[in-house]
Specification:
Layout: H1 3-16, H2 39-43, H3 51-63, H4 80-86, H5 94-102, E1 108-112, H6 115-120, H7 122-128, E2 133-135, H8 140-153, H9 157-173, E3 178-181, E4 198-201, H10 202-216
Parallel strand pairs: 1-2, 1-3, 3-4
GO molecular function: amino-acid racemase activity
Enzyme class: isomerase
Protein name: Amino acid racemase
Length: 217
Amino acid sequence: MGPEATCDLFLKIIKSTPARKDQDHIRVIIDSNPEIPDRTAYILGKGTDPRPYLIATAKNVEKAGASFIAIPCNTAHYFYDDIRSAVSIPVLHIMKEVARSVKGKVKKAGLLASTGTVKTGLYERALNEVGIEMIVPEGRDQDKVMEAIYLVKAGKLEEAKAIVLEQGKLLVSQGVEVVIAGCTEIPLILRDGDLPVAVIDATKILAEACVREALAG
Protein backbone atom coordinates (compact mmCIF):
# COMPACT_ATOMS: atom_id res chain seq x y z
CA MET A 1 0.00 0.00 0.00
CA GLY A 2 1.51 3.28 -1.09
CA PRO A 3 1.70 5.90 1.68
CA GLU A 4 0.57 8.69 -0.65
CA ALA A 5 -2.44 6.62 -1.74
CA THR A 6 -3.23 6.04 1.94
CA CYS A 7 -3.10 9.79 2.56
CA ASP A 8 -5.38 10.32 -0.44
CA LEU A 9 -7.98 7.96 1.02
CA PHE A 10 -7.80 9.68 4.41
CA LEU A 11 -8.23 13.12 2.85
CA LYS A 12 -11.21 11.90 0.83
CA ILE A 13 -12.78 10.42 3.96
CA ILE A 14 -12.46 13.85 5.59
CA LYS A 15 -13.96 15.61 2.56
CA SER A 16 -16.81 13.07 2.33
CA THR A 17 -17.80 13.50 5.97
CA PRO A 18 -20.73 15.88 6.63
CA ALA A 19 -18.87 17.72 9.37
CA ARG A 20 -19.19 21.28 10.64
CA LYS A 21 -16.60 20.96 13.40
CA ASP A 22 -13.74 18.65 14.38
CA GLN A 23 -15.96 16.56 16.62
CA ASP A 24 -18.26 15.69 13.69
CA HIS A 25 -15.52 13.72 11.93
CA ILE A 26 -15.14 9.98 12.22
CA ARG A 27 -12.28 8.33 14.04
CA VAL A 28 -9.76 6.82 11.63
CA ILE A 29 -7.02 4.38 12.61
CA ILE A 30 -4.26 4.08 10.01
CA ASP A 31 -1.54 1.47 9.78
CA SER A 32 0.58 2.53 6.83
CA ASN A 33 2.96 -0.41 6.52
CA PRO A 34 5.59 0.01 3.77
CA GLU A 35 6.97 -3.45 4.52
CA ILE A 36 4.03 -5.15 2.77
CA PRO A 37 5.54 -6.80 -0.33
CA ASP A 38 4.47 -5.74 -3.81
CA ARG A 39 1.07 -7.29 -4.49
CA THR A 40 1.33 -7.29 -8.28
CA ALA A 41 4.78 -8.88 -8.22
CA TYR A 42 3.44 -11.79 -6.16
CA ILE A 43 0.37 -12.28 -8.36
CA LEU A 44 2.64 -12.43 -11.40
CA GLY A 45 4.84 -15.01 -9.68
CA LYS A 46 7.78 -12.69 -9.11
CA GLY A 47 7.63 -11.69 -5.46
CA THR A 48 7.05 -12.48 -1.80
CA ASP A 49 3.59 -13.48 -0.56
CA PRO A 50 2.09 -10.34 1.03
CA ARG A 51 -0.71 -12.19 2.85
CA PRO A 52 1.04 -12.55 6.24
CA TYR A 53 1.78 -8.81 6.22
CA LEU A 54 -1.74 -7.86 5.14
CA ILE A 55 -3.30 -10.09 7.78
CA ALA A 56 -1.00 -8.77 10.51
CA THR A 57 -1.85 -5.19 9.56
CA ALA A 58 -5.58 -5.95 9.56
CA LYS A 59 -5.28 -7.51 13.01
CA ASN A 60 -3.37 -4.44 14.22
CA VAL A 61 -6.15 -2.03 13.30
CA GLU A 62 -8.79 -4.37 14.71
CA LYS A 63 -6.87 -4.55 17.99
CA ALA A 64 -6.58 -0.75 17.98
CA GLY A 65 -10.37 -0.48 18.01
CA ALA A 66 -11.49 -0.25 14.38
CA SER A 67 -15.11 -1.25 13.72
CA PHE A 68 -14.42 -2.07 10.06
CA ILE A 69 -11.48 -2.08 7.64
CA ALA A 70 -10.86 -0.34 4.31
CA ILE A 71 -7.91 -1.34 2.14
CA PRO A 72 -6.51 1.53 0.02
CA CYS A 73 -4.99 -0.85 -2.52
CA ASN A 74 -7.08 -2.37 -5.29
CA THR A 75 -4.65 -5.19 -6.00
CA ALA A 76 -4.64 -6.27 -2.35
CA HIS A 77 -8.29 -7.28 -2.77
CA TYR A 78 -6.99 -10.42 -4.47
CA PHE A 79 -6.31 -11.52 -0.88
CA TYR A 80 -9.65 -10.23 0.42
CA ASP A 81 -10.96 -13.59 1.61
CA ASP A 82 -7.77 -14.30 3.58
CA ILE A 83 -7.90 -10.89 5.24
CA ARG A 84 -11.62 -11.07 5.95
CA SER A 85 -11.36 -14.50 7.57
CA ALA A 86 -8.50 -13.36 9.82
CA VAL A 87 -10.50 -10.63 11.59
CA SER A 88 -13.89 -10.44 13.26
CA ILE A 89 -14.89 -7.04 11.85
CA PRO A 90 -16.24 -6.23 8.36
CA VAL A 91 -13.83 -5.46 5.52
CA LEU A 92 -15.07 -3.19 2.75
CA HIS A 93 -14.58 -4.41 -0.83
CA ILE A 94 -13.55 -1.64 -3.21
CA MET A 95 -14.59 -3.45 -6.42
CA LYS A 96 -18.08 -4.15 -5.12
CA GLU A 97 -18.44 -0.55 -3.98
CA VAL A 98 -17.41 0.74 -7.41
CA ALA A 99 -19.77 -1.69 -9.17
CA ARG A 100 -22.62 -0.54 -6.93
CA SER A 101 -21.90 3.10 -7.76
CA VAL A 102 -22.13 2.63 -11.55
CA LYS A 103 -24.86 -0.03 -11.64
CA GLY A 104 -27.60 0.91 -14.09
CA LYS A 105 -25.74 4.00 -15.31
CA VAL A 106 -23.44 2.61 -18.02
CA LYS A 107 -23.04 -0.52 -20.13
CA LYS A 108 -19.31 -0.39 -20.89
CA ALA A 109 -16.51 0.74 -18.55
CA GLY A 110 -12.78 1.08 -19.06
CA LEU A 111 -10.30 0.18 -16.34
CA LEU A 112 -6.92 1.70 -15.58
CA ALA A 113 -5.34 -0.46 -12.90
CA SER A 114 -2.25 -2.42 -11.98
CA THR A 115 -1.44 -5.51 -14.00
CA GLY A 116 -2.07 -7.52 -10.85
CA THR A 117 -5.58 -6.14 -10.52
CA VAL A 118 -6.30 -6.73 -14.21
CA LYS A 119 -4.98 -10.31 -14.10
CA THR A 120 -7.12 -11.21 -11.09
CA GLY A 121 -10.33 -10.25 -12.90
CA LEU A 122 -11.73 -8.70 -9.71
CA TYR A 123 -13.22 -5.67 -11.42
CA GLU A 124 -14.43 -7.66 -14.40
CA ARG A 125 -16.41 -10.03 -12.17
CA ALA A 126 -17.84 -7.24 -10.02
CA LEU A 127 -18.92 -5.22 -13.05
CA ASN A 128 -20.26 -8.20 -14.99
CA GLU A 129 -22.46 -9.04 -12.00
CA VAL A 130 -24.23 -5.70 -12.45
CA GLY A 131 -24.44 -5.99 -16.25
CA ILE A 132 -21.44 -3.88 -17.25
CA GLU A 133 -18.83 -4.89 -19.83
CA MET A 134 -15.25 -4.02 -18.92
CA ILE A 135 -12.47 -3.01 -21.30
CA VAL A 136 -8.79 -2.96 -20.26
CA PRO A 137 -5.56 -1.96 -22.02
CA GLU A 138 -3.84 -4.93 -23.58
CA GLY A 139 -0.22 -5.98 -24.04
CA ARG A 140 2.20 -3.09 -24.19
CA ASP A 141 -0.54 -0.61 -23.32
CA GLN A 142 -1.10 -2.32 -19.95
CA ASP A 143 2.67 -2.33 -19.41
CA LYS A 144 2.57 1.45 -19.84
CA VAL A 145 -0.17 1.77 -17.22
CA MET A 146 1.97 -0.24 -14.81
CA GLU A 147 4.94 1.97 -15.63
CA ALA A 148 2.83 5.03 -14.79
CA ILE A 149 1.82 3.54 -11.43
CA TYR A 150 5.45 3.04 -10.43
CA LEU A 151 6.26 6.56 -11.64
CA VAL A 152 3.62 7.89 -9.25
CA LYS A 153 5.19 5.91 -6.42
CA ALA A 154 8.52 7.50 -7.36
CA GLY A 155 7.02 11.00 -7.31
CA LYS A 156 7.23 11.54 -11.10
CA LEU A 157 3.64 12.69 -11.44
CA GLU A 158 3.76 14.67 -14.70
CA GLU A 159 5.42 11.83 -16.58
CA ALA A 160 2.93 9.37 -15.14
CA LYS A 161 -0.06 11.55 -16.02
CA ALA A 162 0.97 11.78 -19.68
CA ILE A 163 0.97 7.99 -19.92
CA VAL A 164 -2.34 7.58 -18.13
CA LEU A 165 -4.05 10.22 -20.27
CA GLU A 166 -2.87 8.43 -23.41
CA GLN A 167 -4.19 5.10 -22.17
CA GLY A 168 -7.44 6.61 -20.98
CA LYS A 169 -8.08 8.12 -24.40
CA LEU A 170 -7.41 4.75 -26.03
CA LEU A 171 -10.11 3.23 -23.82
CA VAL A 172 -12.50 6.02 -24.77
CA SER A 173 -11.83 5.28 -28.46
CA GLN A 174 -13.10 1.74 -27.78
CA GLY A 175 -16.47 3.03 -26.69
CA VAL A 176 -16.27 3.04 -22.91
CA GLU A 177 -18.71 5.35 -21.15
CA VAL A 178 -16.60 5.80 -18.02
CA VAL A 179 -13.00 5.11 -17.05
CA ILE A 180 -12.41 3.59 -13.62
CA ALA A 181 -9.26 4.76 -11.84
CA GLY A 182 -8.81 1.31 -10.34
CA CYS A 183 -5.44 1.67 -8.67
CA THR A 184 -5.06 3.97 -5.69
CA GLU A 185 -2.13 5.69 -7.40
CA ILE A 186 -4.18 6.57 -10.50
CA PRO A 187 -6.51 9.17 -8.87
CA LEU A 188 -3.41 11.05 -7.74
CA ILE A 189 -2.83 12.01 -11.39
CA LEU A 190 -6.14 11.42 -13.19
CA ARG A 191 -9.25 13.34 -12.23
CA ASP A 192 -12.77 13.68 -13.54
CA GLY A 193 -12.66 16.13 -16.44
CA ASP A 194 -9.28 14.94 -17.72
CA LEU A 195 -10.93 12.62 -20.28
CA PRO A 196 -13.92 12.98 -22.64
CA VAL A 197 -15.88 10.60 -20.37
CA ALA A 198 -16.32 10.54 -16.61
CA VAL A 199 -13.45 9.27 -14.47
CA ILE A 200 -14.61 7.06 -11.61
CA ASP A 201 -12.31 7.53 -8.63
CA ALA A 202 -12.32 4.18 -6.81
CA THR A 203 -10.55 5.75 -3.83
CA LYS A 204 -13.29 8.38 -3.47
CA ILE A 205 -15.96 5.70 -3.64
CA LEU A 206 -14.16 3.71 -0.95
CA ALA A 207 -13.94 6.86 1.18
CA GLU A 208 -17.68 7.45 0.81
CA ALA A 209 -18.31 3.83 1.83
CA CYS A 210 -16.15 4.37 4.92
CA VAL A 211 -18.22 7.38 5.93
CA ARG A 212 -21.46 5.51 5.26
CA GLU A 213 -20.40 2.58 7.43
CA ALA A 214 -19.03 4.76 10.22
CA LEU A 215 -22.15 6.91 10.46
CA ALA A 216 -24.43 3.87 10.25
CA GLY A 217 -22.62 2.31 13.20
